[in-house]
């Protein structure tokens, strides 16, 4: 795969895949094991050294169903949806990346509360009951009694 230039870095992804059967690896519906090598070079030398990572995936997609490039696009789209969807909402609405809670139990409790708030927001959005234009502004308008009422319904 060719080098791509985006977000002040150069990246290249290469994929290797092995056809398996569910019985071979003990996972129902697993037809391929995929390894994606991600090489990244930051264009700003102050940003840090180049990185070279390998991510492993298991898929129910048979080898003949998708080309290597299609599989790469599916994997990249999956992570883009996570990064641009949930993670972006958690960071913008709740400042999660800036949170410095060090105790494991406390960090877990905060993550649970953030997930609850985002879940309630999305539920209310699906019911067309949200007047705010973002999760952050919606959360600012919520009161404990309003949230408890939502949880009961």
User: What's the multimeric state?
Assistant: single chain
Q: Rough shape?
A: extended
Q: Tell me the total number of β-strands.
A: 4
- Round the Cα radius of gyration to an integer and report it: 21 Å
Order of helices and strands: EEHEEHHHH
Low-pLDDT stretches: none
Structural class, from secondary structure content? alpha+beta
What share of the residues does DSSP label as strand, in percent?
15-25%
Main sheet makeup: 4 strands, antiparallel
- The average pLDDT score comes to 89
Helix content: 40-55%
Describe the structure.
The chain has 153 residues and is an alpha+beta fold. The protein has a domain at 1-65. Helices cover 46% and strands 22% of the residues. The protein has helices at 22-25, 68-94, 104-126, 135-141, 144-152; strands at 4-6, 9-19, 32-42, 51-59. Helix 2 runs parallel beside helix 4 (135-141). The longest helix is centred in the middle third of the chain and has 27 residues, at 68-94. It starts with a strand and ends with a helix.
């Amino acid at each position: 795969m060719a080098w791509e230039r985006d977000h002040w870095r150069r990246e290249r992804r290469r994929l290797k895949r092995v056809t398996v059967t569910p019985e071979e690896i003990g996972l129902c519906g697993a037809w391929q094991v995929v390894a994606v090598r991600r090489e990244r070079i930051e264009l700003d030398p102050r940003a840090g050294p180049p990185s070279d990572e390998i991510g492993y995936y298991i898929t129910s997609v048979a080898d003949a169903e998708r080309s290597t490039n299609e599989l790469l696009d599916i994997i990249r789209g999956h992570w883009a949806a996570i990064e641009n969807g949930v993670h972006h909402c958690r960071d913008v609405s709740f400042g999660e990346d800036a949170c410095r809670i060090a105790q494991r139990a406390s960090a877990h409790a905060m993550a649970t509360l953030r997930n609850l708030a985002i879940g309630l927001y999305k539920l209310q959005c699906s019911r067309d009951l949200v007047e705010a234009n973002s999760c952050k502004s919606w959360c600012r308008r919520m009161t404990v009694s309003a949230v408890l009422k939502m949880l009961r319904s």
